[in-house]
Amino acid sequence: MVNTIWEDLKRQYYSGNIITQLLLINIGVFLFFRFVWLGMWITGFNPDNIQNILEWFMVSSNGFELITRPWTIITNMFLHFDLGHIFWNMLYLYWFGRILQELIGNRKILAIYVLSGLAGVVAFVLSANLTNLPIGDYALGASGAIMGLVLAAATTAPNFQIHLIFIGGVKLMYIALIVVVLDLIALPGGVNTGGHLAHLGGAGMGYFLARQMQNGNDWTERFNIIFDKIVNWFQNTFSRRSRPKVVYRNPNKVKTRTKAAGRQRPGADSLSKDERQARVDAILDKIKREGGYNNLTDEEKEFLFKAGKDD
Questions:
Q1: pTM of the model
Q2: What is the C-alpha radius of gyration for the chain, rounded to an integer number of angstroms?
Q3: How would CATH label the architecture of 2-226?
Q4: Which of 57, 193, 270, 306 has its CA 20 to 30 A from that of 185?
């Protein structure tokens, strides 16, 4: 049963769009640390010590810690520990991410999410070091990144309506205005001041990116170019696949296959286990690279389906 669930989740991740992938990553990280916390309690360790572990992935307002733990500027925006925190963030991610995806396409979503999350980090760190506000030592959560998606959606299609229970249709620009105002009026309360400033930083970045796209200056494409280079470097560096063998072919050998047959790729049944796995890996890479299962050719979809049945 566990293996079936795991395989189903992997299939959902690799065949899903970026919203599905972000949801699965955030929920997966949340569950991982929750189970670590549960394990500490079961084995007799003080579960309060989970904070010491989380701090290695939360962004710090302390300059020295930030420099010595640079990965935290990314990991913090995928990290949650409180159930209410992740519930509302994932709900907003699903609602507004899907809307924005319909408006601007799948490929731009990750760029807005990450850049807005980074803007939230900058707002948090600068406010902690340049003001006397009660900012706090650490920050975590996808709120800044998701606020960027909310403002980007509202800026791109301000008159798009969401139908809310008991209220009816509400335009995106009013929903965005409400969530920004709520963060603003919460600032003087001293409760999670740093978090609210991070939200506003992410919101500002989402608005900026959407306005730039409307003016023909798409910053998300620059992000995607850099991101693709990083992904390709990791794939080329850490790939476990063996290098393809160079086989000499006699140019004078008479070809017996027809031209039409020569254009056909071999089916899953005609390949060895290693060859079939290499072909499956290549198709899964294409799904991740081009943003979803629907970008596959009919032949690739059929191959993936048959390979799955065989396994």
A1: 0.74
A2: 24
A3: Up-down Bundle (1.20)
A4: 57
